[in-house]
Amino acid sequence: MRLFRNTEENPEGKYPIVLRRDGTPLKARYFVMALKDPCVEDALRAYASRAKEEGMAEEYVADIEALADEALQENFLYGNTTDPDAPKHREDDPAILAWARENGCPGS
Length: 108
Description:
By secondary structure, the protein is mostly helical. The protein has three helices and no strands. The protein has helices spanning 40-53, 58-78, 94-102. It is globular, with a radius of gyration of 16 Å. The two termini are 13 Å apart.
């Protein structure tokens, strides 16, 4: 299975719209990870390490490390209940896809 965004039938990605707190869609490219994804803990720890190297705020780095701990706890309590590379298993909403395409399909 490929990233949805790298397929002809799903160029808008698996998560076609990420909204800001004011309701506007994020137009920058992004990649969404769920805490119960079996790979996310390691990804967050690597991100925190790089953020520290880049001199980002200590509190920010600590928050990312805490999020990695939450991911570890999530997987310990509930198991790896996601299958990130599984085929599509939900019905697409044409209105949502049209909205995503109108905004440039930045998601993955």
